[in-house]
Amino acid sequence: MKFLNGGWLIKDGFDVKYAANIYTADIEADKLTLFCPFGSPIYNPGMTLDGGILTIEVTSPRENIITTRLINFREDRSHKPTFALNETSPQVSVEESDEAWLFTSGKLTLRIAKGETIDFTYLYDGKRIAHSGWRAKALVTDPSGVLHVSEQLDLGVGEKIYGLGERFTNFVKNGQSVEIWNEDGGTGTEQAYKNVPFYMSNRNYGLFVDNPGKVEFEIGSEKVSRVQFSVPGQEMSYSVIGGADMKEILANYTALTGRAPLVPDWSYGLWLSTSFTTDYDEQTVLDFVDGMAERGIPLSVFHFDCRWMKELEWCNFAWDESKFPDPEGLLAKLHERGLKVCVWINSYIGQKSPLFAEGAKNGYFIKRNDGSVWQWDKWQAGMAIVDFTNPAAVEWYQGYLKKLVAMGVDCFKTDFGERIPTEDVQYYDGSDPELMHNYYTLLYNKAVYDVLVETKGADEAILFARSATVGGQCYPVHWGGDCSSNYPSMAESLRAGLSFGMSGFGYWSHDIAGFEDQATPDLYKRWTQFGLLSSHSRYHGSTAYKVPWLYGDEAVDVCREFVELKDSLRPYLEKSARETHASGVPMMRSMVLEFQDDPTCEDIDTQYMLGSDILVAPIFNEEGVARFYVPDAGDDAPWRNLITGTEYEPGRWYVERYDYHALPVLVRPGTDPRNV
Predict the structure, then answer these.
(1) Which of 482, 516, 632, 656 is catalytic?
(2) The CATH classification of domain 268-580, taken from the options 3.40.50.1100, 3.20.20.80, 3.40.640.10, 3.30.2350.10
(3) Is 605 assigned a catalytic role?
(4) Is pTM beyond 0.90 here?
(5) Which of 28, 278, 434, 471 has its CA 20 to 30 A from that of 1?
(6) Which superfamily does CATH assign the domain made up of 4-257 to?
(7) Could you say which of 216, 387, 418, 605 is catalytic?
């Protein structure tokens, strides 16, 4: 939210009250409470009248994390959805001197200076990592009369900000305005399916705003030397997270918000989809599966997209008998071929679905304030939305999924979850609709994931999810949404995946060759290389099938070669997944996350590390030209191309041309990812 008019003025229609200084403080064993007048310091008792006070509570939910809650009027949070945080009881110390208060948790200290301005300095292991100073903490009333709580941290020279969810804009977030609000906007805009109010700085701190609703960030985009963040309402809680480096910060953040579980080993193989609106039936499916086998292409999962159900009835969780007269028999045939089966679902129930009347009668849908079912026509005619705050609705929805699992379905693609209304909305448990907009996806994916844990066991549970928020990393895997079939969209997908990994999520996938439009044979082959060197790999599209023989004989060869390459790396991928599960560090890592001390890596968003030892630089042009950087791994030893055997000296950029059977896939010196 921008409210300034240059460096000195406020925009018309806005009212801003800045917290002035700390007038008094209360010290407890594990909590520091500060009281700060607005406008100007208090010099005499008369100045305590007719003016507001900002209450600041400082606590620590875990070691090396310091949480600050800014409070104008205390809110009743009983009907506000909250993120499930893994809080402990860390050892903290609260000290006071003539100059400052010191609040310490582990190696992280918040120094709050005494004086006529508010001055917060964060130090990790004695080194300054973040600072909030003059006119940083404020109450802002916007032109519509809505109050916002706002805070600012300094943005230093050379400091760069990463994360904030799966964002398709520039990987480095400096200069961007970011709104944490889930939208179904494709991959080509500033909108995002997976918004996470957490960022990391290359100055070794993380910032998490503990609010499931709309959080707005101005990252040097209004006051260029500060990162500003704000939420509507009377309170805002945020945590500064310390660590020796960004990997440790991710470990501390995911220890608080949850870590990705291990996923089944078969999920690393190739997933093949029917695509979205294509025509298909049992014979089409078997022809695709058998066609892959005949061409020697290993396949792990077959995915049925939405048209396994009848049109206008999404979701009814019933197979379209005109296409699939014997679904149990078909699933058995797929299992006999060694495949797992995934089916598409969402949390919307069209009015034509037989489930609509049942759900409406029993109060299983989100309602309007007058008690009627909330409906609209976007996506499905007259569709309703399942209310996952209602335990009975969750059990009802899960019951249909359990029937599918009993039939032979192994996992679910949980599509949508972003188009959640906020106006004229009533939830079963009375939850605030604004705060439920982003939070809804967490309840949705958890409900589905829990079914798989219950029916198949935790070791076999996996989703293919599109929407997410904080904590969604506990219900993997996520894919990147509706990308277009062109090179810019391929590149924006990678940027998004790297940002997603910097936001606490361990696994990520994308639609190989693009979702929208028809891919050229050239793009199909290049995206196949990229897709099969991602943590999870799926061919999927909108109106076009994605089986490789439709894109030429060479596409078949490329697909086979890279499926086999990924399969040869299976033990390495499983080892990397164990690291992800244990530490929160993603399988697909940005260069700066793995090589934080190399300044060249700070801006790179066209290559990545797959695990700790494999560098991948996808090719984003029809000429087959790759431009990539080889970092210094610490010993000046050369890196080696896993496919060609070519060696590369570190600390240099390279420009090379590749055919479709190779690309820069470089192995860190002294490692052998095929022998772990």
Answers:
(1) 482
(2) 3.20.20.80
(3) no
(4) yes
(5) 471
(6) glycosyl hydrolase (family 31) (2.60.40.1760)
(7) 418
